Amino acid sequence: MFRTILALLVFITLSTSAVLADPVKKNQFASVYLKGDKIGQVHLTTIRNEKGEIEEMHANASVSFLGMEVYGFTQNLKETWSNRELQKMEGKTDDNGTAHHISLSRDTENYLATYNGKESTLPLTAFPTSPWHYSITENTLLFNIVDFKLLNVKIEKAADTIKVGDKDINAEKFTFTGDWEAKLWFDANKEFVKGEYDVSGRQVTVILD
Known about the structure:
This protein is mainly β. 10% of the residues lie in helices and 63% in strands.
């Protein structure tokens, strides 16, 4: 009887651990606007561990200006994280026919980056211009996720209320100035809600659907 109970307890413990260890996958979509007109969409897929920390993020963006493929912009980006630290990044951007290929890995001292076949290093203190992460608001040294250019910024924080659809959302607004001009809004759960930043020389607004 004791062995049966012990075996059952072990099974329950292992089963519970397995459940807790299962990653959680979430798909989200965001709309891209230019002067009030919808010009594109972002498909965001995140995989989180049992602590709620992001382990993988895939972002696929497609934008066309003037309602047709007069000017097209597409981006496919994959990020791999561990303990809230970026480990790897792979990406491809097509900026109206101009290709940007990036790859990045982490060693003990630097990021090892490759942009269109050219290798370089980036400091581990730099954070990617991936607007979906709340942690971007805690870093004044960023790097561009299109070409790995380092960007020095200043950040101002303010409380704000924004309307998304028919809902009023209490948010934190972060204004970035310097080498990267942007505004980002995050809700009480530190989740991205809205952003205003440059895409191909045009200031667009991105709102989570």
